[in-house]
């Protein structure tokens, strides 16, 4: 009972004068008085008011003091309230005293002696108040005991020196697996993990009043638990509370791991509230959107939604708030820089433990690149299809062109066929009849007549040669190339053997090392024949004609402009360059461009016979083999004719 | 055409070429027995005893046929084909005469079984020599089965 509360005293007497005199006698600042003038009234007061002492007059009409006391003693609420009977006669006491042996009870006799009265009242009051306080403390202790024993934490007292358990609560069983009896008297050190013992010893030696620490402990079935200790040290004793935080720790670890995952994720992970206010923003979101966490936390999600999607986004939020989750939906968002990006959007609502809305959790993956790539692939595919169509179209065109070319070729063939037959027959007739004239009219023809006839025959013959060469040239263009390995040295020997002795007999012919070629035999032979016979022909008038045939090993010959555009991209290292050199009349390089044209000649027919087709054939054959031809010459000193053949074709064999 | 047969049958549409050929053969004195037919149609009539030649016997074989390739209507190649397809006429020696050196003609001729082939040179001397050599070979040197 607290000191600021007055002790409540009920005075019961049918004579108010007596009540008044008692009040005066007992009056003190820490006492309050209630009056009752009969038993009934007294009971009423006693039942409704907390009383610390009742002064009860014995002689009262209707219900005397004993009767009142008896009733009070039967009531749980009032039975412990001390009663002082006030009586006129001493003798009355004997008969009733037995009934009130239990519980505080005393007697005062009229006339009342103020000193005795005060002494008895204050003694009983003090006793009762102490008793009441004790009872209250007991209740409190019981509550604490209940609290302690029902706590999930291990609550105990330990000897501050030995760390032996003195008192432990029931949860020791749950936490360590030992019973209270097993644990009592054993030292905490016994249960500690080896690595934690030193730390606990150190803490013990510090002798602090209040401290906390964490230890790992072994349970009875040899598992490790993590305990968080809160200790009050007093009087050489630890009053300790140990909480099992094993699960908490694990949960914390998982939480911090998850937090790290979220933080480091490349995906945008963020939370917003029902109003759209962003309340969390991870690194991935920073990267994808360009807004820092600080910036984002001042924004609402509408800032990252393209304008035309705002209504839709609001609808999505509404749906999520109603509990539906969104899983991997493709949508677009807008970044700080205003770029529209494609994202794979997932969202769900986060509720707290009491199912109240906390926030909406969003994850977004930037799929802009993927989409671009996919679109690119699609467009490439469609391009490919278009290209395929184009190629088909081109193929058709090529086929048309080819069939046109075939047609042209056929026409050319029939043309050259006609030429070879029809043009030659008149020439033959011209020639034959001239000869017949000469033979049959020898006597009548004079010298001049014979000379004229001879000229007619010469020209007919020459036209025959022109036609032959022209046809040969035309055949070169039409004939299909059939490649095979060619031994160049052997081929040149054959060519030289076939050439007219009159051309070769006095020339010195030097054949150098020649790598083999991979070419059409007949055509290549024509090339050599034309080049070598040219060299012999044009050096035939030199004092000592010399013809050199060779090949440039390292292809370091001066690179002239290719004579054929389709071969212009050939590098010089990929070809062999063959040449035929003579010390003949040569030519002026100014006219080199005309060398390889059909019927183009740099010399008159009187100087050197020829139709001007040989080099055109050479050029045509080499071009069809993917090579080039060119020439170098100095007038009066000789000429060198080069032709190249791609090495790759040679090595293909 | 009263001639039933001859040693040499010349099938040539160009009369100048024919004259030159005959002259060349005459020079070698082997043109005594020569029949000049003007085109392929006439040649087939002759060989298969049709039309103007219906009275002759198919087995009156010449010693050699000089056959020009390029002729109007029916060309020499076609004549050759028909001659070589027929079991009776197949054994008649045929020499193709042509102005061209077209490989196509040469190959086709040999495929059809031509016995020889000569290109008529433009210069008369060369032509004369070629014809004379040919005539001599087929008339004098070549040994043919007795029943011919």
The dominant shape of chain B is globular
Query: Which percent bin holds the helix content of chain A?
Result: 40-55%
Describe the biggest sheet of chain B? 5 strands, parallel
**Strand line-up in the sheet with most strands of chain B:** 2-1-3-4-5
Structure commentary:
The complex is a heterodimer of chains A (653) and B (148). Chain A is 45% helix and 23% strand. Chain A is α+β, with helices and mostly antiparallel strands and 653 residues long. In chain A, the strands form 5 sheets. Chain A has a 5-stranded parallel beta sheet with strand order 2-1-3-4-5, with helices on both faces. In chain A, strands 7-6-10-9-8 form a 5-stranded antiparallel beta sheet. In chain A, strand 14 and strand 15 form a beta hairpin. In chain A, helix 15 packs parallel to helix 19. The two termini of chain A are 122 Å apart. The C terminus of chain A is likely disordered. Chain B is an alpha/beta fold and 148 residues long. Chain B contains 5 helices and 5 strands. A 5-stranded parallel beta sheet of chain B has the order 2-1-3-4-5, sandwiched between helices. In chain B, helix 1 packs across helix 5 and helix 2 runs parallel beside helix 3.
């Amino acid at each position: 009972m607290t000191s600021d509360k007055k002790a409540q005293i009920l005075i019961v007497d049918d004579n108010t004068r007596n009540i008044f005199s008692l009040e005066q006698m007992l009056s003190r600042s820490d006492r309050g008085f209630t009056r009752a003038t009969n038993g009934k009234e007294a009971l009423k007061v006693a039942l409704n008011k907390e009383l610390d002492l009742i002064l009860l007059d014995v002689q009262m009409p209707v219900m005397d003091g004993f009767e009142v006391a008896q009733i009070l003693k039967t009531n749980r609420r009032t039975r412990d309230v001390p009663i002082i009977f006030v009586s006129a006669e001493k003798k009355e006491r004997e008969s009733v005293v037995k009934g009130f042996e239990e519980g505080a009870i005393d007697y005062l006799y009229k006339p009342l002696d103020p000193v005795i009265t005060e002494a008895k009242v204050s003694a009983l009051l003090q006793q009762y108040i102490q008793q009441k306080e004790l009872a209250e403390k007991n209740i409190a202790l019981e509550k604490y005991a209940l609290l302690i024993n029902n706590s999930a934490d291990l609550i105990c007292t330990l000897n501050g020196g030995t760390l032996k358990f003195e008192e432990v609560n029931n949860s020791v069983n749950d936490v360590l697996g030992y019973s209270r009896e097993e644990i009592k008297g054993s030292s905490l050190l016994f249960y500690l993990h080896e690595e934690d013992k030193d730390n606990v010893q150190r803490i013990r030696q510090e002798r602090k009043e209040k401290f906390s620490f964490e230890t790992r402990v072994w349970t009875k079935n040899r598992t490790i638990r993590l305990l968080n200790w809160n200790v009050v040290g007093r009087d050489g004793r630890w009053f300790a509370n140990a909480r099992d935080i094993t699960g908490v720790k694990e949960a914390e670890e998982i939480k911090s791991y998850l937090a790290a995952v979220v933080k480091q994720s490349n995906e945008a992970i963020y939370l917003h509230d029902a109003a759209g206010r962003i309340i969390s923003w991870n690194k991935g979101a920073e990267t994808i959107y360009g807004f820092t966490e600080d910036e984002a936390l001042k924004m609402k999600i509408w800032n990252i939604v393209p304008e035309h999607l705002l209504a839709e986004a609001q609808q999505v939020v509404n749906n999520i708030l109603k509990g539906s989750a969104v899983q991997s939906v493709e949508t677009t968002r807008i970044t700080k820089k205003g770029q529209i990006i494609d994202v794979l959007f997932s969202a769900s609502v986060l509720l707290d433990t009491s199912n109240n809305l906390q926030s909406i959790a969003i994850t977004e993956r930037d799929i802009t690149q993927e989409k671009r790539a996919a679109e690119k692939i699609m467009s490439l595919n469609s391009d490919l299809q278009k290209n395929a169509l184009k190629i088909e179209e081109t193929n058709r065109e090529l086929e048309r062109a080819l069939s046109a070319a075939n047609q042209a070729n056929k026409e050319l063939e029939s043309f050259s066929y006609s030429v070879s037959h029809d043009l030659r027959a008149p020439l033959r007739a011209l020639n034959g009849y001239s000869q017949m004239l000469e033979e049959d009219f020898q006597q009548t023809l004079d010298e001049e007549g014979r000379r004229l006839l001879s000229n007619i025959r010469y020209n007919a013959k020459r036209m025959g040669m022109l036609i032959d060469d022209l046809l040969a040239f035309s055949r070169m263009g039409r004939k299909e190339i059939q490649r095979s390995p060619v031994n160049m040295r052997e081929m040149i020997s054959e060519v030289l053997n076939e050439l007219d002795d009159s051309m070769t007999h006095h020339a010195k012919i030097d054949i150098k090392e020649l790598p083999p070629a991979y070419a059409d035999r007949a055509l290549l032979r024509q090339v050599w024949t034309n080049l070598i016979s040219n060299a012999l022909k044009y050096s035939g008038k030199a004092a000592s004609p010399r013809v050199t045939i060779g090949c440039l090993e390292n292809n370091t010959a001066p690179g002239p402009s290719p004579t054929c555009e389709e071969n212009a991209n050939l590098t010089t290292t990929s070809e062999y360059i063959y040449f035929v050199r003579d010390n003949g009349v040569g030519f002026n390089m100014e006219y080199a461009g005309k060398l390889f044209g059909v019927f183009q000649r740099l010399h008159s027919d009187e100087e050197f016979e020829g139709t001007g087709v040989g080099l055109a054939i050479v050029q045509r054959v080499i071009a069809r083999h993917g090579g080039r031809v060119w020439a170098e010459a100095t007038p009066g000193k000789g000429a060198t004719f080069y032709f190249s053949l791609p090495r790759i074709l040679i090595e293909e064999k | 055409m009263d001639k039933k047969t001859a040693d040499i049958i010349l099938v040539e549409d160009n009369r100048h070429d024919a004259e030159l050929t005959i002259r060349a053969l005459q020079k070698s004195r082997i043109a005594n027995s020569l029949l000049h037919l003007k085109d392929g149609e006439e040649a087939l009539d002759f060989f298969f005893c049709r039309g103007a030649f219906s009275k002759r016997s198919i087995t009156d074989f010449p010693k050699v046929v000089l056959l020009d390739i390029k002729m109007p209507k029916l060309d020499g190649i076609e004549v050759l084909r028909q001659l070589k397809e027929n079991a009776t006429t197949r054994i008649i020696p045929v020499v193709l005469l042509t102005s061209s050196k077209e490989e196509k003609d040469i190959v086709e001729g040999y495929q059809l079984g031509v016995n020889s082939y000569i290109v008529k040179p433009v210069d008369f001397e060369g032509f004369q020599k070629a014809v004379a050599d040919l005539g001599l070979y087929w008339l004098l040197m070549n040994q043919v089965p007795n029943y011919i």
